[in-house]
Amino acid sequence: MAAKVVRFGAVASLLGLSACSFASNALWPSLGGGDRPAQTQTAAVQRTTATGPTVAASPLPAPPALGTTTFVPPAVTQGVSTGTFVGGKVAQHRGELIALQDQIIGHNQQLQQVRTQTTEDSQRYHGTIAAINSRLQIGTTPGNPVLLGQWRSAQSELERLSGDVANLNSLANSVASDSAMASYLLEAARATYGLAGAIDEDHRQLAILEDETNRTVVLIDRLLNELSEDISRQTAYLSAERRNLQTIAIAIQNGEILGQSLFNRAFANAAAPADFGAAQAAANAAAAQQQFGAAQIGVGEQALVVIRFDRPNVAYQQPLYNAVAAALERKATATFDLVAVASAQGNAANMALNVTRAKQNAEEVLRTLTDMGLPADRVRLSSTSSPDVTTNEVRIFVR
Predict the structure, then answer these.
(1) How many Å apart are CA 296 and CA 289, to the nearest integer?
(2) How far apart are CA 375 and CA 363, in angstroms?
(3) Rounded to an integer, what distance in angstroms lies between the CA atom of residue 281 and that of residue 302?
(4) Which residue of 177, 184, 203, 371 is surrounded by the most CB atoms within 10 Å?
């Protein structure tokens, strides 16, 4: 595997970045300028390799817990015929309640089946992901076809989980119809009290029916709430795992483990308790700083990462991931300036070619970051050139 080359050093202050002038291409504002001091455009870099310690990879997140309640409606008390009109209405409402409860029993059976299927699909998916990560953890060849096959299997298993969520949504719609029917029956039972021609036995049976209908309404509400929680957790889980799969694809391409999606890291750090977040951030930042020598994560005038494209196929992905992950540990809302630095040495044709290549390198790094899960709106692209650099660079700053 090709050695990774990453350099760091003091570069332009972030104040200078925010005050940059813009070129005609809106995507590529220029940081350069003839009157700009040379020391603010260059970086004193230190050569280091990516064989040192890495930021600790987050453990594989457990699948969300599903509800465990079994929803069985209370039995409907049978009544006797009184021969009155009101007694006939009570019998009609009782039959409608029994039919509704039969539907609830069927929907409860569907729920338990979907939960069982979701658990099985989730276990298969996590088993596949664990196997991929275990192989990546010890190192493997870039683009290992066995891992690619496992990745495709994981993708298929994740789609099955998506189908399970769709089944939960469909079931929730059916239960919502049950809820509307139960509310109607409850109102109808209460309205029956106002009908003329009833005897005491009619009202006694009607009171029992009203209580049992009310308990059915409560049961359906609980069923809907638990379904809503299951759907919400599973939907968030699927979204996070899709991003993680994207990051795993990069890891397989490079033959080494990265970690969970940068988006998921940022979200988890924002939601984590302050004391845990601070401890984890300190540990990850220390590990990244040890790997990257003089680089200081999140400090104003120093680059988080400097990647020198002094050879074909520079393998920068793992150090880049570690550095950005550590920065997000320290500040979950961090954004990044990605600067393409072109060498200004040589004639005009060489300089123009260097500018084009530097921008292409920066766009490649941006694609890598977004594939790792970093939202594109967290990154700002810009470009500059310097006569003090001998090869094109991409520098990343935290702000």
Answers:
(1) 6
(2) 14
(3) 19
(4) 371
**Cβ atoms of residues 352 and 383 within 8 Å:** no
Question: How many alpha carbons lie under 13 Å from residue 176 in its C-beta half-sphere?
Answer: 8
Edge-first strand order for the sheet with 393-398 is 305-308, 393-398, 336-343, 379-386
**pLDDT tens, residue by residue, 300-316:** 458 888 999 988 888 88
Number of domains the chain contains: 2
pTM here is 0.60
Helices 262-271 and 274-291: crossing angle in degrees, nearest 10, is: 140
Helix (H, G, I), strand (E, B) or coil at 382: strand
Give a yes or no: residue 70 inside a domain.
no
pLDDT in tens, 175-194: 999 999 999 999 999 999 98
Distance CA 137, CA 251 (A): 10
Tokens of 55: 């930021």
What is residue 103's three-state secondary structure?
helix
Residue 40 φ/ψ, nearest 5 degrees: -90, -5
Task: Count how many Cα atoms sit within 13 Å of the Cα of residue 66 in the half-sphere of its side chain.
Answer: 22
CA distance 38 to 117: 63
Q: Give how far Cα 39 sits from Cα of 12, 34, 35, 143, 377, Å.
A: 8, 13, 12, 41, 29
- Do 221 and 325 reside in the same domain of the chain? no
* Long-range CB pairs of 122-126, under 8 A, 24+ apart, other chains included: 122/63, 122/161, 123/63, 124/157, 125/63, 125/154, 125/157, 125/158, 125/160, 125/161, 125/241, 126/60, 126/62, 126/63
